[in-house]
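Morning!

This is the sequence you dropped in the shared folder:
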Amino acid sequence: MVRAHRPSPELAVHLATLYDRFPFPRSFSDDPIAEIRTYSTDRRHAEVTALYGATLATGNATAIRGSIRTLVALAGGDLVDAVRVGGDPDPWRTFRHRWIRGDQMAHLARRLHAIYDSYDSLEDVFLEGMEKDGFASGIDALAQALRGPGEGPRAPRGYRALFPSPLDPHHSPAKRLTLYLRWMVRDRFPDFGIWKRVPMNELRVPLDQHVFWIAYHLGLTQRRTRTWATVEEVTAALRRIDPVDPIRFDFVLCHTGISGDCPKRRDITVCGPCVVRPDCRMWRSVREAS
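The structure's back. Tokens below.
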């Protein structure tokens, strides 16, 4: 039987050291959040632009940043104005980011227009769900509002799949909406902290492939697939390390993977200086044999 890999007693100290030494300026400029920072002084502009940015947050970070800039330019430099007029599809007809199309982005503007007719903020939508049955229900409420009702204008092909929910039958990790919530709620760099009524310690980790791989190898989860249960398990492990700000390591772990600082294989030339190497599943057998 293979022994489960659990976090070492030193992991909290090692993660804190990784965080303290991390080159934030380098990675911030490579992150989609850098494209949204310009709009963060105005609540509505931040909320709308960040939602579009999070929705596009799939694939290469450079391509994501470029697609955010392209989308804003096609909207005449103001996504909020596009939402205000209800999402004219013509300017965005040529837009494409991987499988995400301009007609879907125009429909999102129409959905936001309808939501803002009833709510002052998407925070209200999230809290309405969260107060019923917890964090996952808050994400579900936000996803359902963005998907829209069954009646009314028909959503473009593939649109509803952009907003999965943890309460769907496949229990999605909802990476893009948890990332959006991190940006909006967490009040420490690099995030915006614009939403004030959602407790920071309630946030869940945005479990992309990089964070999942590193979390598994640090023993933060024993699960081999990315589901909402994995999100909860990783977040619970991080909350034991930092009960106030459990996802403060998300940006660092994500960009440790993106930058190649974690090669995802045993390579002493890269792994040697890594402060969490003593905690890593790949190096455990080496440590135990020595």
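Headline: The mean pLDDT is 92.

More detail when I'm at my desk.
O.
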